[in-house]
TrEMBL record:
Domain of life: Bacteria
Keywords on record: Signal
Name of the protein in question: Periplasmic copper-binding protein
InterPro entries for this protein: CusF_Ec, CusF_sf
Cleavable signal peptide: 1-20
Amino acid sequence: MKTLPLALSVLVLSAPLAFAQMNHSDMDHSNMPMSDEMMEGAVHTKAVVNSIGEGTANVSHEPIPEIGWPAMTMDLAMMPDAEMMGDIAAGDSVTLMLIKGDDGMYAIGAMMPE
């Protein structure tokens, strides 16, 4: 479990910090290891982080009409190269970027504090 804080620290230090706000049209995704197809299908939502574990995060998110999800609390997988844009801990309000995988499931591609 001690590796998670270290991994998050590395991600925070390597994440592009040039984002003033989470406006998808203003975001520079060029450094993210995702295909154009994955980026095209990305959706964003505001959420509260309940917990972060090994490869998953439990969040309570707002409705996501683009994919037909109501507001809910759920565990979401985190992509192996998920970008953590700042210090994020349980209880924090964040904006999530969700990426649809080849399996049809959405995973967290990026998380940024509000």
